[in-house]
Design a protein that fits this description.
Helix content: 25-40%
Radius of gyration: 14 Å
Strand content: 15-25%
Number of domains: 1
Distance between the termini: 38 Å
CATH class: Alpha Beta
Shape: globular
Order of helices and strands: HEEHEHEEH
Bound molecules: tetrahydrodeoxyuridine
CATH topology: Cytidine Deaminase, domain 2
CATH architecture: 3-Layer(aba) Sandwich
Largest sheet: 5 strands, mixed
CATH superfamily: Cytidine Deaminase, domain 2
Length: 132
């Protein structure tokens, strides 16, 4: 599946965003090497800290089905913002552990698209290596 097609799938996921507080809608789609797709959308809460971001939702869905970093080929994250929506700090920390560092991450707002990876998005990581 091309990056363009994966972005389209992430926009489908965005349709399920529950964002009554920010009105900022995010969708994500994780493509696994066996072709399986996992979708996520941002799900907000009146207790704002209970909000879950789209990209964490998608990757957690993959992990919940037993897929691991080596099984995931690419992740698209899209939003309806004025510019490309970059993953928040919490997502960068979480995804730095759950995705391979050089796995393509495709960001788009429908107008601009950028392909990046965790290595670029989140250098100097705190990780399990620090806990040995
Ligand atoms: N959001 C995401 O889904 N992913 C990010 O990486 C950035 C922020 C969501 C959380 C919240 O529902 C809304 O965008 C505004 O912060």
């Amino acid at each position: 599946m091309s990056h363009e097609e994966l972005v389209k799938e992430a926009f489908k996921a965005m349709e399920n965003a529950y964002a009554p507080y920010s009105n900022y809608h995010v969708g994500a789609c994780a493509l696994c090497k066996d072709g399986t797709l996992f979708y996520g959308a941002n799900i907000e809460n009146a207790s704002y800290g209970g909000t879950n971001c789209a990209e964490r939702s998608a990757v957690f869905a993959a992990y919940s089905r037993g897929y691991r970093k080596d099984d995931i080929e690419a992740l698209a994250i899209v939003s309806d913002g004025k510019r490309i929506g970059y993953p928040c700090g919490i997502c960068r920390q979480v995804l730095s552990e759950l995705l391979n560092q050089k796995m393509p991450i495709v960001l788009s707002n429908g107008q601009e698209t950028l392909v990046t990876d965790m290595e670029e998005l989140f250098p100097f990581q705190f990780s399990s290596e620090d806990l040995d």
